[in-house]
Design goal:
Elements lengths: L6 E5 L6 E2 L6 H9 L16 H11 L4 E2 L3 H9 L3 E10 L3 H14 L4 E5 L5 H11 L4 E4 L2 H11 L4 E5 L12 E2 L15 E5 L9 H13 L4 E7 L8 E4 L2 E6 L3 E3 L2 E3 L2 H10 L4 E6 L5 H9 L3 E6 L9 H20 L2 E4 L2 H4 L12 E3 L11 H11 L3 E6 L8 H8 L6 E7 L7 H10 L7 E5 L3 H10 L2 E4 L10 H7 L5 E4 L6 H6 L2 E4 L4 H13 L6 H11 L2 H14 L1
Parallel strand pairs: 1-4, 1-6, 4-5, 6-7, 7-8, 9-10, 9-15, 10-12, 15-16, 16-17, 17-18, 19-20, 19-22, 20-21, 22-23, 23-24
Antiparallel strand pairs: 2-3, 11-12, 13-14
Helix pairs in contact: 5-6, 8-9, 9-10, 12-15, 13-18
Length: 566
């Protein structure tokens, strides 16, 4: 296996790594040279020799006061092993004390492998050409047009010379010209565009939305440099961490209300992280991301909304107001986004007000990761199952999930039909409903088995032992049901509510049956008929049929294609 070598990149100091306001006079000097008002030999730079000349040029170089914002990207690329960075400045030896100040500053952050000064007072263009050869640089970043022309002519296609130009000289015809250091990085091979992702909840929160986003982002982390912004929904979480190649920043909030976060601090985080990003992806539903969407549009960033579902609320004035705010938020997301990824057209287009957005819409089914079984756990629960029929429910215990209908249907089935409930033990905003369900199941405890907080490997083991997975959702808050794909991938048939979006996997594959939502008798019949169907008992054939229709690889490719085309 070959190890990818980092690209060697050299950077000039003044005008490249350091912004020098006085460099605005350079176009004027170039014009005077062109008009032959200032006489000099071809490619002959002035070398101060008198004391007063050195003092003047030392003062001139002290105007290099500001470090370019692009140095943060150099630091990121160095740490990621993408580039090996060098400083090559043609400053003459008498400027060594001032130059060493900057070299020491860079050394503290360990950004540059080595920094070189023109100690022998060579002609700047010749010194730089020599160092480019000696260091075997692949790229060099320069701001002096004369030097750029010389180096480009000398090295041709062997080395690429990037030119940091200015508004006056920008009219000059040159392939690799850029108005700022930040803009050059996109022209480096294997450059990973910066993607800013926002979702109110993210890892380690467990829900269909957060699991989908985590899996998809982890898959594309080799193509994009991804920063995730979410809220610190638990005090035990870190403010910042790297996970699966993702940089996760968890923002503080003032208080929590109806599963949402009130956070004025988030505006600062949004603005700060938007500045240098190339692309913004936002999970919907949310209210918290409205400032991000608006700022992103004002800053002319490309925006993708991953539209998961609409939220439904119980009656009441407060719930009504929140509902209206979310409806407004949805329209802002759809209006300002360049593209919108939906899990199923069947779900999205049931809402007549969304029809007009069809040119922006791209159907991309959920990503489902092929995880390996936990063999020890598999053997353990296989022994536990014995000869019983296992009906599986995988997900949060939440009011919209239809668990009460499922419990009623279970009572109509034979005693050897056990209900397996697998999901997170604690869900923000759902603890009261969980207590209600636990109280209901007290009388059926012998037939109901809970598996809490299973990791992906254990979950795959559980899926493979189910006889049927049941998705009894009752509301439009479920747009697809990723667990259906995870079960079908193991050859397990599914019984699902006949609701837009949720019904798609069963309709496309034929691996299961649909039932009328909230109807316990309809659910009972669907479970019984699915278990009785001989053709659905052959797991090998089920898996083959499923793989012909759904593919995680294809899902990732579709999402990458969407991002590239905006």
């Amino acid at each position: 296996m070959s190890i990818k070598k980092p690209i060697r990149v050299g950077f000039d100091l003044d005008g490249v790594l350091l912004y020098n306001p006085v460099r605005i006079v350079r176009p004027i000097i170039s014009l005077l040279k062109k008009k032959k008002i200032i006489q000099r030999k071809e490619m002959q730079f002035f070398v101060p020799t008198r004391k007063w000349e050195m003092i003047f040029w030392r003062l001139f170089h002290k105007t290099s006061l500001f470090v370019s914002p692009g140095i943060k990207e150099i630091e990121r690329l160095v740490k990621a092993g993408e580039i090996e960075a060098y400083v090559v400045t043609a400053r003459f030896k008498y400027l060594q004390p001032d130059t060493q100040y900057w070299f020491n500053k860079f050394a503290k952050k360990k950004i540059f492998k080595t920094c070189y000064l023109n100690e022998k007072n060579e002609q700047p263009h010749l010194f730089k050409a020599r160092k480019i050869d000696e260091l075997k640089l692949d790229y060099f970043v320069e701001d002096n047009w004369d030097i750029v022309q010389f180096l480009n002519k000398k090295f041709g296609q062997k080395k690429k010379i990037f030119w940091i130009t200015n508004l006056v000289d920008n009219k000059k015809n040159y392939e690799y010209k850029f108005l700022s250091l930040q803009k050059i990085f996109k022209s480096l091979p294997n450059y990973k565009p910066k993607l800013l992702f926002f979702s109110p909840y993210f890892y380690p929160h467990k829900s269909g939305i957060t699991q989908y986003s985590l899996k998809m982002l982890s898959e594309i982390a080799n193509k994009y440099s991804i920063t995730v912004l979410s809220f610190k929904f638990s005090a035990r979480l870190k403010n910042f961490e790297y996970f699966n190649g993702l940089k996760i920043i968890r923002m503080p909030f003032l208080f929590y209300f109806k599963k949402g976060f009130i956070s004025f601090q988030s505006i600062i985080y949004f603005f700060k992280n938007l500045i240098n990003t190339d692309l913004v992806v936002v999970d919907y539903p949310n209210l918290e991301g409205l400032p991000l969407i608006i700022f992103a549009k004002l800053m002319r960033k490309k925006i993708v909304t991953a539209f998961h579902c609409k939220i439904q609320f119980e009656t009441g004035l407060i719930n009504y107001l929140i509902k209206k705010l979310l409806e407004f938020s949805a329209l802002v997301h759809l209006d300002l986004s360049d593209k919108v990824a939906v899990l199923a057209d069947d779900y999205f287009y049931q809402f007549s007000s969304y029809q007009k957005y069809s040119p922006k819409i791209k159907e991309i089914h959920p990503h489902f990761g092929s995880e390996k079984k936990d063999q020890l756990f598999f053997k353990k629960i296989k022994q536990q199952k014995k000869k019983n029929i296992w009906l599986g429910f995988v997900g949060r215990i939440a009011s919209e999930k239809g668990i009460e209908t499922l419990l009623k249907a279970l009572q109509k089935l034979p005693a050897n039909h056990q209900l397996i409930i697998a999901g997170p033990s604690l869900v923000t905003g759902e603890n009261e409903y969980r207590k209600k369900v636990l109280k209901i199941v007290e009388n059926q405890s012998a037939r109901i088995i809970f598996f809490n907080d299973l990791n992906n490997n254990k979950l795959v083991s559980l899926f493979s032992l189910l006889d049927v997975l049941i998705l009894p959702s009752e509301k439009h808050t479920e747009a697809f049901g990723i667990v259906q794909l995870e079960a079908m991938e193991q050859g397990i048939p599914v019984v699902a509510s006949n609701l837009p979006g949720i019904r798609v996997p069963v309709l496309k594959t034929g691996l299961g049956m649909l039932f009328k939502p909230k109807d316990e008798f309809s659910l009972y019949k669907a479970i019984k008929q699915t278990l009785d169907k001989r053709q659905l008992k052959d797991k090998t054939k089920n898996i083959k049929k499923f793989n012909q229709i759904f593919s995680s690889k294809e899902t990732v490719n579709q999402f990458l294609d969407l991002l590239r085309k905006i």
